[in-house]
């Protein structure tokens, strides 16, 4: 499925005209970007993945990834506003009852309900099974008590997907967890603090405290208790693709800034660094689109999404650091975006399953069996519903042979039409070529889908102009905006 | 200066030209980022004469034609009142010029300082990470018991030890032989160790490492300055490479 070029182009335009000029100011003041959020609502981005039937845009994941990328190219914090919201909406969409979908999704799509995820707790991050927030049944309601940490949109949002323990006696623990849609307003829910951060400012990250907070049983996602852990974990594929897309966007911004700086002086000393940056960025982008494309085809892609997240987040941090070096001492000044990108990128390494746990999961692959007891399989957040199912059956401990899992999956990679085509057609990169074939005052990567490619862009790619650097994506993108 | 009655600071970067005039020199230009520029009473300024040869001059803050231009806030190393010196025809008597070889020596000491700062910064980040990994538990045990964390700690400690030894060796060679080849190695190793270890420390802290409640986010912000200062590590590498290549074999 190709990306919806129209929306991507609109977002890019929005970022160029509205976001870039104000991003630095909002970031350093740590001001919530109310105006930009209103503009994103007008663009329909709050309903990006909500089906048209429920009032959303009904975008595919590939397009969503490209939208996130474009936002991050201007200012990463904007993607945080959209993404936590989208994750909450997806939980309702994929696991809610029809009544819940009808009740919540149109409001999510319109941006009236502004969402977030209440998952992490002060003592439990990667170890989701260790959460302690409880939801106890009382008549037609549940009473919630506990503390949730690092809730993106916690202060500005009003509707959250909450994971809580409904049966503390359940074994394994995750079978006693349930997901609720909780709304602000009736008391019992307060914002304890907004958390100061290295980067990713402007968007609020909060600690939320639930004290005898009452949520109607009608808001129990899916109407059945004990499935919440599965609901939350099933979002990790989309979550990791999103983080990868963010990293690609921030990496692109680092590339943009480095090129902008270099073009004002002598290119030669930086040519090697630029070529390395461009290569890392292209690799990260391809992995991300590849995982997104699998998701759109309905294939399982936890491993691929994990790889994309891993590669793209590390690449983004490296690009940001290289960008600083290319700027020299000026890179440290808060008047230039380079230092912001350096502060933003660790978020992608740490968030949505830190890279330490994602790499362990990707390494183990999906066929691994639990090593010790039932908790092990969750240690590395192997994510997704398939792992949940496997937890219900006993399988032999064969995880030592990790390469078998990888080997099994590589067979399917080879079948992927993308991997074969891009390996053949992707052009060699040199910084020199990159600089010359880049259209003036436009992006490093301007997609043909936007119809804005400079005629100069094909001059250095003799055989395959459509695979020039101006269009590194091997994904088919349909031609014209709607 | 030794008694701390006046503060001094060095201004090594930027482009300052020195034109001889009578008994002394006239300095013109703008320096790179100078720490303590707001408070220092005396600046040691690196300039280049008409032939490109380096000169080092001691310039009091009160010199006519000297002004301090405050820099915009920086990523790290905050609170030092960093700024640029703007020299508009500042006259310096020959008595305020340091002798031959001073430029190299001043630069060497400055770069050695960067290396030592890198070692200290990396050590601080390492200790913070070690402490946190003992206090924080996940999956039923302290995270320092997880192999993924242990491997990181091992790499961090190894890199820091290497950088520290290189730095100590560089100091000794500079002291005894005035040789600054080892300084280049120490600077590259220690400053890049600082970059690496501060990021690793943040990874070990997880989400909390990204918050301002823990010091690692500051360490992460402080590290790039060491890599970027005085022309940056790439220049350091180029100089080192040239010197290694042109050295006599044996």
Could you give the order of the helices and strands of chain B?
A: EEEEEEEHEEHHHH
- Quick check: average pLDDT of chain B? 89
Main beta sheet of chain B, described? 4 strands, antiparallel
Main sheet properties of chain A: 4 strands, antiparallel
Strand content of chain B: 15-25%
Mean pLDDT of chain A: 77
Radius of gyration of chain A, in Å, reads 22 Å
Please give the oligomerization state of what you see: heterodimer
Alpha carbon gap, first and last residue of chain A? 16 Å
Percent range of helical residues of chain B: 40-55%
Give the strand order, joined by hyphens, for the main sheet of chain A.
Answer: 2-3-7-6
The total count of helices of chain A amounts to 17
Helix fraction of chain A?
40-55%
The total of beta strands of chain B comes to: 9
Strand content of chain A: 5-15%
Which spans of chain A of ≥5 residues are poorly predicted at pLDDT below 50?
A: 364-482
Largest interface: A-B, 45 and 40 residues
- The computed structural class of chain A is alpha+beta
User: Any idea what the shape of chain A is?
Assistant: globular
What this model shows, in words?
The complex is a heterodimer of chains A (482) and B (250). Chain A has 482 residues and is an alpha+beta fold. Helices cover 48% and strands 11% of the residues of chain A. Chain A has a four-stranded antiparallel β-sheet with strand order 2-3-7-6, covered by helices on one side. Helix content of chain B is 47%, strand content 20%. In chain B, the strands form three sheets. In chain B, strands 2-3-7-6 form a four-stranded antiparallel β-sheet, with no helix packed on it. In chain B, strands 1-4-5 form a three-stranded mixed β-sheet, covered by helices on one side. In chain B, a hairpin with a 5-residue loop joins β4 and β5. In chain B, α1 (102-135) runs antiparallel to α2, α2 (147-177) runs antiparallel to α3 (181-205) and α3 (181-205) runs antiparallel to α4. Chain B is globular and about 75 Å long. The model of chain B has no long low-confidence stretch (mean pLDDT 89). The interface between A and B is large, with 45 and 40 residues.
């Amino acid at each position: 499925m190709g990306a919806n070029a129209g929306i991507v182009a609109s977002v890019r335009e929005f970022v160029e005209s509205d976001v870039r000029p104000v991003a630095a100011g909002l970031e350093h003041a740590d001001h919530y970007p109310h105006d930009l959020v209103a503009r994103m609502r007008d663009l329909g981005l709050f309903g990006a993945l909500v089906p048209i039937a429920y009032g959303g845009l009904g975008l595919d994941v590939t397009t969503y990834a490209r939208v996130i990328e474009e936002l991050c190219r201007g200012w990463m914090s904007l993607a945080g506003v959209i993404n936590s919201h989208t994750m909450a909406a997806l939980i309702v969409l994929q696991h809610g009852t029809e009544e819940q979908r009808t009740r919540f999704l149109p409001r999510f799509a319109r941006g009236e309900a502004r969402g977030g995820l209440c998952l992490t707790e002060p003592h439990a991050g990667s170890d989701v099974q260790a959460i302690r927030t409880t939801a106890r049944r009382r008549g037609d309601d549940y009473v919630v008590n506990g503390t949730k940490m690092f809730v993106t949109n916690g202060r500005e949002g009003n509707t959250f997907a909450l994971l809580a323990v409904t049966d503390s006696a359940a074994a394994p623990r995750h079978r006693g967890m349930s997901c609720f849609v909780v709304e602000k307003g009736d008391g019992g829910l307060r914002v304890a603090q907004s958390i100061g951060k290295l980067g990713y400012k402007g968007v609020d990250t909060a600690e939320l405290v639930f004290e005898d907070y009452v949520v109607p049983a009608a808001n129990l996602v899916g109407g059945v208790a004990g499935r919440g852990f599965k609901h939350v974990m099933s979002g990790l594929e989309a979550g990791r693709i999103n983080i990868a897309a963010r990293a690609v966007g921030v990496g692109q911004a680092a590339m943009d800034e480095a090129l902008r700086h270099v073009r004002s002086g002598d290119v030669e000393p930086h040519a090697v660094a630029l070529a390395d940056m461009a290569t890392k960025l292209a690799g990260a982008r391809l992995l991300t689109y590849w995982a997104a494309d699998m998701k759109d085809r309905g294939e399982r892609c936890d491993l691929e999404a994990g790889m994309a997240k891993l590669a793209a987040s590390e690449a983004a941090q490296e690009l940001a650091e290289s960008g600083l070096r290319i700027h020299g001492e000026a890179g440290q000044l808060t008047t230039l975006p380079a230092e912001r990108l350096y502060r933003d990128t660790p978020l992608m390494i740490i968030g949505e399953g830190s890279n330490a746990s994602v790499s362990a999961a990707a390494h183990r692959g999906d066929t691994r069996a639990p090593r010790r007891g039932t908790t092990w399989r969750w240690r590395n957040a192997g994510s997704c519903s398939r792992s949940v199912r496997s937890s219900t059956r006993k399988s032999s401990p064969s995880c030592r042979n990790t390469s078998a899992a990888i080997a099994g999956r590589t067979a399917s990679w080879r079948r992927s039409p993308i991997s074969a085509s891009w390996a053949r057609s992707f052009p060699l990169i040199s910084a020199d070529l990159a600089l010359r074939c880049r259209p003036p005052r436009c992006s490093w990567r301007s997609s043909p889908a936007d119809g804005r490619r400079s005629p100069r862009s094909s001059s250095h790619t003799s055989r395959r102009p459509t695979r020039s650097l101006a269009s590194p994506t091997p994904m088919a993108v349909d031609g014209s905006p709607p | 200066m030794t008694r701390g009655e006046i503060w001094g600071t060095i201004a090594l970067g930027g482009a300052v030209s020195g034109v001889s005039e009578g008994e002394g020199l006239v300095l013109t230009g703008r320096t790179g980022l100078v720490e303590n520029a707001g408070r220092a009473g005396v600046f040691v300024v690196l300039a280049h004469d008409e032939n490109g040869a380096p000169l080092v001059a001691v310039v009091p803050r009160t010199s006519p034609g000297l002004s301090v231009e405050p820099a915009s806030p920086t990523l790290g190393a905050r609170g030092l009142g960093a700024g640029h010196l703007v020299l508009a025809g500042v006259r310096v008597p020959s008595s305020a010029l340091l002798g031959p070889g001073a430029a190299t020596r001043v630069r060497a000491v400055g770069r050695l300082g960067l290396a030592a700062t890198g070692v200290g910064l990396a050590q601080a980040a390492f200790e913070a990470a070690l402490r946190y990994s003992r206090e924080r538990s996940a999956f039923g045990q302290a995270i320092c018991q997880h192999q993924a964390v242990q491997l990181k700690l091992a790499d961090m400690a190894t890199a820091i030890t290497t950088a520290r030894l290189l730095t100590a060796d560089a100091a000794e060679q500079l002291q005894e032989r005035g040789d600054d080849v080892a300084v280049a190695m120490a600077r590259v190793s220690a400053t890049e160790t600082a970059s690496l270890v501060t990021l690793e420390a943040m990874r070990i802290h997880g989400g909390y490492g990204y918050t301002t409640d823990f010091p690692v986010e500051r360490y992460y912000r402080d590290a790039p300055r060491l890599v970027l200062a005085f022309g940056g590590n790439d220049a350091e590498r180029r100089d080192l490479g040239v010197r290694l290549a042109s050295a006599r074999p044996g």
